[in-house]
Amino acid sequence: MDGGGGGGGGASDAFGSSTAPLAWHDFLERMRHPSAADFVKSIKSFIVSFSNRAPDPEKDSAAVQEFLASMEGAFRAHMLWAGSSEEELESAGEGLEKYVMTKLFNRAFASLPEDVQRDEELFEKMALLQQFIRPENLDIKPQFQNETSWLLAQKELQKINMYKAPRDKLVCILNCCRVINNLLLNVSISSNENPPGADEFLPVLIYVTVKANPPQLHSNLVYIQRYRRQSRLVSEAAYFFTNILSTESFIWSINGEALTMDETEFQKKMESSRAHLLGLSINTEENRNQTTENIIEHSIDTSRSQGESQSQVYVRENKDHEKAEQNASRPPSISDLETKGVADLVKEDELTEYFKEYPYLYASAGDLTVDDVESLLSCYKTLVLKYVSLCKGMGSNASTFLELSIRTDSKLENELASSKIDHYSLDNSSMDVTPNDSLAHRDAKLEILEGHDGKDKGPIKLKGNLSDNSTVAALHHAEHKVTEKQDVIQ
Amino acid sequence: MGCASSFPGKNVGRSGSLNGEQTVANDPKNIRVKLVLLGDSGVGKSCIVLRFVRGQFDPTSKVTVGASFLSQTIALQDSTTVKFEIWDTAGQERYAALAPLYYRGAAVAVVVYDITSPDSFLKAQYWVKELQKHGSPDIVMALVGNKADLHENRKVSAQDAMEYAEKNGMFFIETSAKTADNINQLFEGTGIYLYRNKTQLSWITCNNRPKCRSCICCYEVP
């Protein structure tokens, strides 16, 4: 064998982003040329016809892949690229992919309810795992453990939602992998270890991913898989992309055994992480602005002097919450009690027992039917009643938490009995519910706010500030989660 | 990863994925092969690859690169080149279920064990069974007993391993990443095996499959 020399790595060839902006500019320039008019026409018509179809991941992916391939063929035969090198043709293909997918982003990214739901579940699972997972749980050898440096890798991965084009998203993953490889390599050199292979690399990638917990990770991965031109998702890029796919797969399957942990111990840790996040969300006041309406429900165990019975306290966070905070500083305030209750709950072994009788706590808006509205509303009323009474009993003013104009208790009772919901009014406009709001209208509104409609999605920071992961996870957790309006940038 | 600077000027055109596809498609003399490494952690998978790619073992060398993905091109006698794209997998038990994601589409699976560890040999047999069950039926499998330099601690006899390999239609070789014994032979042998068996060229990865009819990896040999 006369060895052909090393083609090792090749990272900078495949993914060097230094030439990318130039290529992009070049593509746009060529498209402005009069002789490119036909190209522009077919691109536009493809975008329009694609946008008008209902989402279907397989068909969508095939349509984009076919379109990109046929256009690349047409570029090759066109005078605009006469005498061009393979590199130039390739970068024209890159430019086309970026253009088309940027235009189709809202329609193609996280456009299926299943994907959105998986995003939420994965996000929550990682938010819980990151509270207690240790490098040892994943077989990361002590000498390779370096959480501070791993932050760099986490940062690279967290950039994934800043981009719309599949290639740009893929580059975030590649950069994250590169940082990890460099760190492992430095350690292996300085500690005389064998060079790091997949035995070292994959566990660190998993750990970094759980800690980074980028929102909508699942949607990002399927988006790259579907819309990154397949002929360019090869070799090293394909290898590291496979690693992040297997990372996702591993995280889904994480249980006690996968972390060399007793299953009951694992469940306990998951539960206490969950309770911890709920607790955090009460105390983290700065984080509220990311949503216009957050409703957080907390079940707390209030053992008050008169009664031993458990009570439900539902906290409604809204713009008026600041006022409540001021009042809450008077001891013993509702929020003090709440904090104490959460702390007590965390210590409970059978945490789930406490939530068993609240069927909607773990439901997402998509699970609900119109028939549920009546019972939900009646539950809501009972809770408000209990809450307001509790507040009254504590000597604090209920309206500081919930600006509700509730008529007399007896009137409310009557209404609960007759279930005549249309007479019940919430006069707070921030709730967006007016006395005349029809149920259908309300449902439709929820649907949109839940983000099932792609148009509501912003490309950047979809779930708020990245540093607020835990709060966001807690929000996810709450039943009415999220009527969040996302910043639409651009 | 900084790999590019470690390999100045060598095969730059072919190492990137940007041209890679065309190179394969336009030139049947250049074959690209996806090779996946399976085996228990600690059997020296990454050392074998580094030895092959870098021709050296010294892990303290500054030019060593991370070895989870590496590629290396070899030339066969008739100037056909075979570019190996080597995919390493994590060998720890907890990651075993992820392996199919890696060996999907691989033309070659190199299953490595450590001749001083009977457990690693059992694990190798597990991988062979997995590949037979879930891998591509065309996949070429090689069984590799590494750490052959530690023969005084040998716990797995070469005879046993060879018999097992034969029974399962595998290519068998004992190597030492430390002394470089048989490392080149492993890859060269695999390359020749792939090349000579042209009737089974569909092993070789091509991302245009199954539609592509123009490249060496997809056309049907009469």
Automatic annotation (TrEMBL), chain A:
Q: Which InterPro entries match?
A: DUF5601, VPS9, Vps9-like, VPS9_dom_sf
GO molecular-function annotation terms? guanyl-nucleotide exchange factor activity; small GTPase binding
**Ranges for the VPS9 domain?**
116-260
What are the GO BP annotations of this UniProt entry?
Answer: vesicle-mediated transport
Which SMART domains does the record associate with it?
VPS9
Q: Which domain of life is it from?
A: Eukaryota
Transmembrane stretches, start-end = none
Pfam families per record: DUF5601 (PF18151), VPS9 (PF02204)
Basic and acidic residues composition-biased segments: 316-325
Q: Where is the composition biased (Polar residues)?
A: 302-313
Can you say what this protein is called? Vacuolar protein sorting-associated protein 9A
Which organism is this protein's natural source?
A: Apostasia shenzhenica
- What's the encoding gene here? VPS9A
TrEMBL record, chain B:
SMART domains attached to this UniProt entry: RAB, RAN, RAS, RHO
Q: Which gene encodes it?
A: RABF1
Q: Which GO terms describe its molecular function?
A: GTP binding; GTPase activity
Q: Which Pfam families match?
A: Ras (PF00071)
- Keyword annotations of the record: Nucleotide-binding
| Protein name, entry field | Ras-related protein RABF1
Superkingdom of this entry's organism? Eukaryota
Q: Which PROSITE patterns does this UniProt record tie to the protein?
A: RAB, RAS, RHO
Organism of provenance: Apostasia shenzhenica
